[in-house]
Write a structure and sequence with these properties.
Number of domains: 2
Strand content: 25-35%
Helix content: 10-25%
Distance between the termini: 30 Å
Order of helices and strands: EEHEEHEEHHH
Oligomer: single chain
Shape: elongated
Bound molecules: zinc ion
Number of helices: 5
Structural class: alpha+beta
Largest sheet: 4 strands, mixed
Length: 171
């Protein structure tokens, strides 16, 4: 019952994430339809109601523009899954730093493409140098998540990730 449900607009654009109970109510009221079911059920005294994983509203609603997610340390660590992007070491958020690939002192911007999770060891090795000057390279090129909801996707676990994935490349 505590699982999250992805809510799509009638146009399939992801617009929200809600709790399972709310999603079931929307489906029962006919406001939304279940696009992807979860393997879980809600048990009432008389019925066994499947809990959706993704629902879609029957009627298009106007949604205020979702604010762009900022590349804060927290968000970058979610994107990079708490792994140093230089050596691949996984660590807890408190043990990771937010690294400007091109240091700010050299004009590097605070943008998704210039920020990566970095362990303390790599951070002190790199210091204030540009990545290539320090003889370091990245495991993969950092990008801005395609859609703010992708941050939720990065956070979601195994099967939820599978069921939500195809809806989160909307742009
Ligand atoms: Zn590292």
């Amino acid at each position: 019952m505590n699982s999250n449900v992805l809510v799509l607009n009638a146009s399939y654009e992801p617009i929200n994430i809600c709790m399972a109970r709310r999603a079931v109510v929307l489906v029962l009221k006919g406001v939304a339809i279940c696009e992807e079911a979860s393997p879980h059920y809600l048990h009432s005294p008389t019925r066994k109601i499947p809990i959706p994983s993704v629902i879609r509203l029957r009627h298009y609603i106007k949604v205020p523009r979702i604010r762009e997610k900022r590349p804060t340390k927290k968000n970058v660590l979610i994107r990079d899954r708490n792994a140093c992007q230089y050596c691949g070491k996984k660590a807890s958020p408190s043990e990771l730093t937010l690294d400007h690939i091109t240091p700010r002192s050299r004009g590097g911007k605070t943008r998704w493409e210039n920020l990566v999770a970095c362990c303390r060891r790599c951070n002190s090795r790199k210091g204030d140098q540009a990545m290539t000057d320090a003889g370091m390279s990245l495991l993969k090129r950092p990008r801005e998540p395609v859609h703010p909801f992708q941050l939720h996707l990065f956070r979601a676990r195994g099967n939820v990730r599978k069921r939500w994935r195809k809806y989160l490349y909307y742009s």
